[in-house]
Amino acid sequence: MTTTTVGVLRETAPGERRVALVPDLVPAVGRLGATVLVEPGAGALAGHHDADYRAAGAAVAGRADLLRRADVLLGVRPPTVDPEHGLHPGQVLAAMLCPHRIPYRVRQWANRGVTAVGLDLVPPALSAGYPLDAETSQARVAGYRAVLLAAARLDRCLPPWGTADALFDPVRVLVVGAGHAGLQAVDTARRLGAQVRAVELRRPERAAVAALGVGLLELPGLHPVADDRELWDALDHERSAWTAGLAEAVTQHDLVVTALGLPGRMPPVLLTTAAVARMRPGSVLVDLAAGPEGGNIEGVLPDTTMLVGDGVTVIGAGDLAAQVPGTASRAYAHNAVALLARLLRDGTPVVDPADPVLGPMLVTHGGTVRHEPTRRLLLLEATAVAGLP
Asked: Which ranges of 250-291 would DSSP assign to H, the alpha helix?
């Protein structure tokens, strides 16, 4: 029987410190009938050295050799590999792909016959997909990190401080959006002794906040909704209620974390610079939604800190999970192994587009682009080039 080879790529994106597979989980891949090749230095920034991988049963191979031999490639971010010379037809590439941001690279993968699987594209409604869901695992790390990042810039300590605690008011924290990142931010701030409230309209997320014993802040004119679709309808049609309500709410808080966004959609701007400037000097905001398309705070940029008004700090988060590479890599590696368990049958990769979990995760397969938002982007480009109306 031919053994499948799983290749673990070294990340090359600036600031990326995670690795797609940690040494402790190499034996788990072996039990699935696969061998593991690791690019030299792949885990070094996450505290895992080449000798650790060898001791766990993996082999270490240079990039060219790894790309040639691997049947399945594991990465954290989309690799900077020339598809024509670095990848081969039938190869499986799995990473957090954010395909709508790299449509031309996606098209190259499809043309090359590569099957690209997005570990950030697990259908959220399917509980069976949870073990594979890297979007969730990394968002939780980011939510934790966001609170610590804000606390380090805040001019006060989060827990009550001093010999007479009653003399010190608790830090007031507001979290906007209680998805996976926001909910983790709520829990982290609560555990650190802050007085926490959350703004959330989706009923399942509201229940999760309440289960932590944290209060919900209701914004005037807005009402609970069933799911993401209804939330975005409320954002589209009731934006003024959001901005007006939050402009008033943030002035009553010292630390604000915004985390309202969905993959494939531009984050809604919920807080204007004028609203932020009204906050108490020394307050801190962290925008977890900050990315190339913008964020929840007006003018925010990822991986950037700016001062607004009379000393209010606004932090565009960027990819905070990469700043906690030990925990983030271990969580991501479990997602990757869960994917391999679903993908490998008798040690051989079998891609089933009809699989209710794996099917929606397929970005390219069989020579075609299957991710619908990316297909639309490519079609729009082709239409524009052709000069069609």
From this structure: 273-277
Number of H helices, E strands in the chain: 14, 17
Which amino acid is residue 326, in one-letter code?
Answer: G
**pLDDT tens profile 351-384:** 999 999 999 999 999 999 999 988 888 887 766 6
Residue 333, SS3 per DSSP? helix
- CB-based burial of residue 119 (10 Å sphere; 0-12 exposed, 13-18 middle, 19+ buried)? buried
Angle, helices 228-237 vs 239-249, to 10°: value is 90
| Residue 103 one-letter amino acid | P
List Cα–Cα distances, 155 to 196, 217, 275, in angstroms: 17, 24, 20
Q: Give residue-wise pLDDT tens across range 232-287.
A: 999 999 999 999 999 999 999 999 999 998 766 889 999 999 999 999 999 999 99
Q: Tell me which of 1.10.287.1700, 3.40.430.10, 3.40.50.720, 1.10.287.180 is the CATH number of domain 4-131+324-386.
A: 3.40.50.720
Look up the CATH superfamily of 140-318: NAD(P)-binding Rossmann-like Domain (3.40.50.720)
- Kindly report the backbone phi and psi dihedral angles of residue 197, in degrees, each rounded to the nearest multiple of 5, phi listed first: -135, 160
